[in-house]
Design a protein that fits this description.
about 40% helix; 6-stranded mixed beta sheet; single chain; alpha/beta
Length: about 500
């Protein structure tokens, strides 16, 4: 069993609390999903559990992390620079236990992720792999190093459908304690048997962590029921209190008015009114005490709130009508004979295996649409920094002139940015916060076509409910790459699978 006792982590830079007094434990068979909005300290918590030195550059801590001799293995969100410049063979040769694996064991591990044994010995640079291939690489490292406790930071990011199913099975069947962060709602629904919900309340100044030994769907259902019930009871209590308060004020005004009118020649009435005023004062004290004991409205962190306008595209208007005899990266041919026709306000998703060329194709589609006059298009890349100004602040990036700033800050607030986060350089923001900037950009303008590469991958499971809604209601054309099963089912009306032989429409 591993225990976290009264763990508090503080940001050294501004002394703000990242998490406060967190306590929980995990044992074999427990699959703990850590959920919450972007920037709430989920990744920091996993790093601290794995190796407290990983956070010492930016945070201090108090409390205990008791591992009882158990070895943790961390699947990080990002690989560091030194790992990126290694060949795949060098990366695996540096894994503890790699040379203890037989060729058959390596082959079985690779096969489960849709790879062949030759992947372990490739001279290709780690940095040249696709996002999904990097996730597979990190999963294989965990399998080889065989830790006692698995800490997975976004294992579902960028992976294809087959790998997603593999990751689900891996989490459910490994038999070890698993603590993981994922924004894929279906994955969390299918795997978690306990939840740690990290929130930031009162304008993101106070952290709160709630541990619950139930699955995700039941937790969300209970949470929403509890919020609604508390809101209803608090509203009822307040309404009843206001009636008492209004009745008291009428009595108080009546006694005060009578005191002002009483004649000095009528001491008996004056004494009676003075006695009544004592009673009124006693009533006032009781009301004040009752007010302090009223049930408070529930304090909880809300998901993002955003709305798009967008222009409706006529049903017969061709947005994309393209043919590619081949799709290549450098000299490597990824696919061939690609035919794609998109008209009107269709919502089209391109899916396929990692490394099949989906992002490359989406960029080609974006370039093709830009050639068409009169179509206002927005492109959200998979690598956010391709479309963002690294050193600019969120407000500066979104502002076209000074008069826009008030409106922009309002939008940023609706997406849960604090005043400090609005002014920070973009490169210091979390992946989810960077993703939000693209969505605010869409909301601030009116587009005909949205081209989005993995639009939901960095939003929390709860915020993704709102993202799915707003994209489903978007009036223009949506063209995207995604492996998010809920997003595809709820938003997209046409799905294509890309492989080496081109695009094939997928039918339910």
């Amino acid at each position: 069993m591993m225990q976290v006792k009264n763990l508090t982590i503080t940001n050294i830079k501004d002394m703000s609390l990242i998490c406060d007094d967190i306590s929980f434990s995990v044992v074999n068979g427990q699959r703990l999903a850590v959920i919450g909005e972007e920037g709430n300290g989920k990744s920091t918590l996993l790093k601290a559990i794995h190796d407290i030195d990983l956070i010492k550059g930016y945070a201090s801590y108090s409390g205990e992390i008791i591992k009882n001799g158990l070895k943790t293995g961390l699947l990080p969100q990002e690989l560091d620079y030194e790992e990126h410049i290694k060949s795949i063979a060098e990366y695996f040769c540096g894994c503890d236990g790699f040379f203890d694996f037989t060729p058959k064991e390596l082959s079985n591990a690779a096969y489960g992720l849709g790879l062949d044994t030759g992947f372990f010995y490739s001279e290709e640079k780690v940095g040249s792999l696709s996002g999904g291939e990097k996730v597979k690489l990190k999963i294989l490292k965990l399998i080889i190093e065989n830790p006692d406790i698995l800490l997975l930071d976004e294992p579902s990011n960028d992976i294809d459908m087959d790998t997603m199913i593999y990751v689900e099975r891996f989490i459910k069947n490994c038999g070890k304690p698993v603590i993981y962060i994922s924004h894929d709602e279906r994955l969390v629904e299918n795997t978690a048997n306990c939840i740690l919900h990290m929130e930031r309340l009162r304008r993101k100044t106070i952290p709160r962590a709630t541990f619950s030994g139930i699955g995700y769907s039941e937790y969300i259902e209970r949470r929403l029921y509890g919020i609604k019930r508390q809101e209803s009871n608090a509203k009822k209590e307040y309404s009843e209190f206001k009636k008492k308060e209004e009745k008291f004020l009428k009595i108080q005004q009546k006694v005060e008015s009578s005191q002002n009118r009483v004649s000095r020649q009528d001491p008996f009435t004056a004494a009676l009114l003075k006695k009544k005023m004592h009673t009124v004062k006693s009533m006032e004290k009781r009301l004040e005490k009752e007010k302090s004991g009223l049930l408070e409205r529930p304090d909880y962190e809300e998901a993002v709130n955003i709305k798009f306008t967008g222009n409706r595209v006529p049903a017969g208007k061709k947005i994309v009508d393209m043919y590619l005899d081949s799709l290549s990266v450098g000299e490597k041919v990824l696919s061939k004979d690609i035919r794609l026709l998109i008209t009107g306000s269709q919502k089209v998703c391109i899916t396929g295996r990692n490394g099949s060329g989906k992002t490359t194709l989406l960029k080609a589609v974006a370039a093709e649409i830009k050639r068409i006059r009169g179509i206002n298009t927005f492109y959200m890349p998979q690598d956010y920094m391709e479309g963002l100004e690294n050193k600019a602040s969120a407000v500066e990036y979104l502002s076209e002139n000074d008069s826009d700033r008030g409106r922009i800050m309002s939008f940023l607030g609706s997406m849960n940015f604090t005043a400090d986060e609005m002014r920070r350089s973009i490169d210091s923001l979390s992946g989810g916060q960077k993703a939000k900037l693209f969505f605010i950009k869409i909301a601030l303008n009116s587009y005909d076509v949205l081209i989005l590469d993995e639009p939901t991958r960095n939003f929390s499971a709860m915020s993704n409910i709102e993202i799915r809604r707003v994209l489903k209601e978007f009036k223009g054309t949506l063209i995207c790459v995604s492996h998010d099963r809920k997003f595809i089912d709820e938003v997209c009306d046409k799905v294509y699978v890309l492989d080496q032989n081109g695009l094939t429409e997928k039918y339910n």
